[in-house]
Amino acid sequence: MKKLLVMAALASLTCTGLFASGQNESGAQFIGLAMPETHVERWQQDGASLKSEAEKMGYTAEVTFGDADQSKQNQQVQDFITKGADLLIIGSVNEGVGSVVADAARDDIDVIAYDRLITNSGDYDYYITFDNFKVGQFQGEGIIKGLDMDNASGPKYITLFAGSPTDNNANFFFDGAMSVLGPYVDAGELVIVGPAPMSSDDKANFTKIATENWRPEIAKARMENLLNNDAKDVVLDAVLAPNDTLARAIIEACMTDAKYDTVDKLPVVSGQDGEVGSVKFIRDGKQYMTVYKDTGKLAQAAIILADALLKGETPNVPGARLDTSSYDTGKKTVNSYLLEPIMVTQENYKEVFIGGGVYSEADLK
Ligand code: BGC
Question: Which of 106, 250, 304, 364 has the most CB atoms lying inside 10 A of its own CB?
Fold first, then answer.
C-alpha cells in the first residue's frame, strides 16, 4: 500500500515536472512570473525577457498573464506556489494580489513586486521599477515644450487623463506631471478643461480623470464625451495622457472631431512606453512625446535581484538606484530598485528606437 502511494506521488511529480522544493529533474530552481495584462503591449515583452533572463541564469521559469483580472492572476500565482516555486516576480493587476503574496510568505517564497508596487501588503521586501515620478515629470516637460510655453501668448487649454486608479504607478505619473504643469496652472497660463485635480491626493477629482485598468476604450469614450461637453467651446492645446495605449485612443477620438481632424490641428499629447504605434505617431506628428522604459533592462535587473535573493546574497543590481525610504506599501517600506526612463520626441526617436535597436526601420513602416 505504502509503495503504491509512493508511486502515485512520484507519478504526480513527474506530471508537473517539478518537485516540492521547486527543483525539477535538472535540479534548477523555479521562478514564477506573473504579468498583469496583454492589452498594453509592453507586458508580453516583459514576460518574454524575464523568462529568457531567468533561463540564461540557469533557472526554470514560466510566465502567465492575468488579463487585468486579479482573481485570474491570483489563481495563476497560486498555481506557481503549488508547483513549488522558489521565487515569484509579480506585476500585479491591483492590491487584491495581497492574499496570494501572503500565502507565498507563509511558504517562505520571496516575492518581488515588478514595475507596480503591491500596496497594502507587508508580506514582501523587494520592488523593482523605473523612476515613475520622473516618467510623469518628462510628460509634463514634454507638454510645456510642445506648447512652447516660454513664448506663448495667452492661456493654453489642457485636459487631464490618468492611468488606472488601482495602479499605484498612476499616482506617481500624475504627480510627476503636475509638479511641472502645476505652476503654469497657478499662473493662469495653462487652463485645465474638465476635472482638475492638482495631485493624486484629490481622490474625488483624480477618480474622474483615471482610466480603469488602463483600458483604451474607456479613455476614448471619455475623450469623446469631453469634446462634446466640457471642451465644446474651446480648442484644446494639450492632453496629458499617461501612456501610449491611451494616448492613441485619445488622439483617435480627437481626429473624429472637425476641430482636430488634421495633424497640425491635434493637441500636444504625451505618452509612455515607446509602443511601436506611438513611435509612428510621433514620427508623423500626431503624438508629441513618449517616455521609453527599457523593459529588457528591467527584466534583466529583476532576475539579477532574484538570483541574489535565491542565493541568500546581498543584492547588487547594476544600473538601478536603491531607494530604501520612498516606497511604502501602507504596511511597510520596501527596498526599491529604480531604473531611469528616457524622454522621447520627434527630435530623438530615431536615435532611441532605431539606433538603440528597439525597432527596425521595417517595424516603423
Ligand atoms: C506601467 C506602464 C503601463 C501601464 C499600463 C503601468 O503600471 O508602468 O508602463 O503603460 O501600467 O499597463
Answer: 250
Cα of 283 to ligand 1 centre, how many Å? Answer: 22
Report whether residue 115 contacts ligand 1, using a CB cutoff of 6 Å. yes
Amino acid residing at 24: N
User: Candidates 3.90.930.12, 3.10.580.10, 3.40.50.2300, 3.30.565.10; correct CATH number of 132-293?
Assistant: 3.40.50.2300
Is there an atom of ligand 1 within 6 Å of 116 CB? Answer: yes
Q: Which CATH number fits domain 2-124+294-339: 3.40.50.2300, 3.40.30.10, 3.40.50.970, 3.90.700.10?
A: 3.40.50.2300
Please give the average pLDDT of every successive group of 10 residues along the chain, which has 365 residues.
Answer: 39 43 70 97 97 98 98 98 98 98 98 98 98 98 97 94 97 98 97 98 98 98 98 98 98 97 97 98 98 98 98 96 96 98 98 96 95
Q: 298 and 278 in contact (C-beta within 8 Å)?
A: no
The whole-angstrom separation of Cα 18 and Cα 134 is 41
Beta-bridged to residue 32, according to DSSP, are 62, 88
Flag whether the pTM goes above 0.90: yes
Best residue for ligand 1 mutational test, from 270, 273, 293, 338 (most atoms within 8 Å of Cβ):
273
Residue 123: CB within 6 Å of ligand 1? no
